[in-house]
Model the fold of this input.
Amino acid sequence: MVRFHLFPTEIGPCAIAWTDAGVVRFQLPERTEADARARLSGHEEAPPPKWLKDTVKRLTRHLTGEPQRFDGDALDLSGVPPFHAKVYQALRAVKAGDTVTYGELAARAGSKAALRAVGQAMAHNPLPLLVPCHRVLAAGDRAGGFSAYGGRFTKAKLLALEGVTLGEKKEDAPLFTAASGARLPYDGEEAVRHLCANDDKLAELIGRVGPFTLQLKETDGAFLALAESIVYQQLHGKAAATILGRVKALFARPAFTPRDILGASEADLRTAGLSRSKLAALRDLAAKAEDGTVPTLPALARMTDDEIVDRLTVVRGIGRWTVEMLLMFRLGRPDVLPVADYGVRLGFKTTFRTRGMPSPAQMQRRAEKWRPFRSVASWYMWRAVDLARR
Done:
């Protein structure tokens, strides 16, 4: 009997299927979870058995940019043609960071002339990553084809996670845009129309500011986004950027991982410019990312705003305001009202001419008419401050 398990990763929900003999299928993210399940229809969804949990954990780490080895994992290749099985076994020996051509792989499988058959084996590979078909390139180090959702752009992204660059543009990879693209998940023009129709004074401000132009900040994951927030706290942008650059330079890749932070010496991290309190906060963040307390971006995307605030504020140095900025500028949530933000409070005071700085309760009462687009109204509060300074 074949069973499958759907699990979150940094690039989206993946699925793994198994029999008693080993892993029989691995599914990279589809456009939606429903699409992923549809590909495995007819099989029973179940929690992974104990022997498979480590494989799932390593696959998740691999997709955060921390390459893992899978050549020792048990696979069930009984359902594939014999030559395909021979090709897959040869390909499993190609390590992360290395690539082979179709011709080289054919030779390793014992048949130099079988280029077409090798291509067919790659096109029908049921176990990407475990059988790393993304590491097989066409002549001239060209990407060639890739049968998973996103095609050759997904292939280029998987190679980039392992340190191999083919030159595809980052923004071209559809597999990754759900978590880190610059497009808002709501209609900004609809939000502006709603705000103008429900608040005349806010409509006046919008008329003076002009179109809503907020864009999401790209990120390589929730851990890195929060790590950056910790480093930037109470520092000017240039100083914080310098310190963050020094921290990144300590590791083999700029997108450092929780394990990188936990394994680095205190002396190295302090020399990079981190204060003792920020070092403690960064290490607590890393520990909680490692144990799953801090979810991946795709997992956060399935949670409510309040759930995300409750989940992330258990991390040392991460308060409600930091999470609200993540919600607005990384996840694109439309209905966030950061009542503790000085700029939003000052913009509110300027726009609605309150006697003093408004209280959170005063802002919340007014903002009821802004729902479900309080993030957009907050953005205009910041712009009100900009206008007042001109």
Observations:
- The chain has a mean pLDDT of 87.
- The two ends are 70 Å apart (CA to CA).
- The chain has two domains: 1-178, 222-329.
